[in-house]
Design a protein that fits this description.
Elements lengths: L1 H21 L5 E8 L2 E7 L9 E6 L4 E4 L5 E2 L7 E8 L8 H11 L5 E7 L3 E8 L1 H9 L10 H14 L7 E8 L4 H4 L5 H9 L3 E8 L7 H8 L6 E4 L6 H13 L2 E6 L11 E6 L8 E5 L4 E2 L35 E3 L5 E3 L11 H13 L1 H18 L6 E9 L9 E3 L2 E5 L6 E2 L10 E6 L2 E6 L6 E3 L2 E2 L4 E2 L5 E4 L2 E6 L1
Parallel strand pairs: 1-15, 6-7, 6-9, 9-10, 10-11, 20-21
Antiparallel strand pairs: 1-2, 2-12, 3-4, 3-13, 5-12, 7-8, 13-14, 16-17, 18-19, 18-28, 20-22, 22-23, 23-26, 24-25, 24-27, 27-28
Length: 493
Amino acid sequence: MAILRRALCLIAALAALLCSAAASDADTVPAGFWQDGRLHIFVHLSDSPGSGVEPRLQLGPTALTLAAEGPLTRMSDADTPVSYLLLVDRSNSMGGLDWNVTAFARRLARQEARFSLASFGVDFRLEAEDCDGDGLLQALKALSYEEEGTDLPSAVVAAMDYLVSRPREPGELVNLVVITDGVTEAVEDGEALEMARYQVEEDPSVLVHTVGLATGRQVSPEALEALSALGSGAHLTVGSGGVSADSAARTVAQTVDLLWTTSFSVSLPEDLRLDDAALCLFRAGENEPYLRLSIPAVPLLAAGEAPAVPTAVPSVQPQPTPVPTVSPPAPTMTAALVPDAAGDFSTAEPGSGTLCLDPVWLLGGLGLVSALAAAVLYLVLRRQQRASSDTVPSGAIRLHLEVAEGHCVQEGEELYLFQELTIGRDRRCDLVWRARSLPPLAGRVFRKDGLVFLEGLDPRCQVRLEGMRLYGPSRLRSGDEITMGPVRFRLRF
């Protein structure tokens, strides 16, 4: 086994090296906006720029470049304000998944940010606005999952409209986090999301993340794939081979923290627009950029009153960019046709930030990567399983549910005992059983003085522990068989 593990590790490392070239297009500008005469941009870089790198803004097809007001800075080290709007599906199919929503929010609430909560069923509803983490969790507790239908595309459009219209602090990065189980025809066919995708793509002032809940139910791959195509933030699946809700929240937070940000004081001549701009990175002492990234067409936002568009900034003078000297390509790298953002093909130019490989090398590398996919997938799944199982929320006890008889909605989920765990037929319980003869609230498992106890809550339902009927709270030990009416199960902890 040790030899096999080493071989798999070596294969995975080789696959990672082959894929690293294809991942060069990970350098992007996922968010940006113009506010009060400043252009704020947020950059994802596959490699740290290091010290001495100078960011410049290139406007239009001319050689007009502007120096940044400061160096590129990690969001985790910057003073840039951050806010999150959680857009939560409140349809009745989410009733058994509300714990995952709370677990996600509990982890995300640790960030130094402001939070708002909105929900959607057939309509968009704002639940709480500009609160701290505790306020977010309180608002979630009051959220009920009772809608018969959902309209996700319209909800995303409404959320974007709300975020764009609300005042924001100077340079504030606004995040929209869509949380849904994807159980709607509108999500599954993918076509109904085109309107929402268009809204998101046309307004990069909001960074959009999606969290698909596939825990405890069957969700089509088409639904999750359609959801993951929405926005340029993090896209995750919780359950059914995905990550835990806690891990998903950490990934969203890290996606924001690992961005780089800078700003430019921008005064536009009449013949130039902000939808024809690029970020160029220069190393110290060099006159040619080593990376050039296209900036999306950024909107004009205002903090308070909308500023008038300035016509000139005397302190900024156009700087001509020297004509680059193109060296002959290396034997293994050639200029190639690569698809642009619109799907058209054009010839890649040196210094464009895109690495173009010879087709023979590219096809060979992709073939080898495909052959090694099974081994790499095995290692990734093992790592995800280990990462999700190693993290237990503070003050909680991890529970493993073993169902002997009956059908529990939460079977296969990660369960944690904080104060109590309610059990019954009602979808608001922590353990929801699909059994008509089981009372809505049949019993509970709770903690007291460091011990775990089981208690029946409905006299019409017999609760037995290891075959003995309970008439009051009784201590529960790991692996004890619990019988509540028609269901039998064990909790291991």
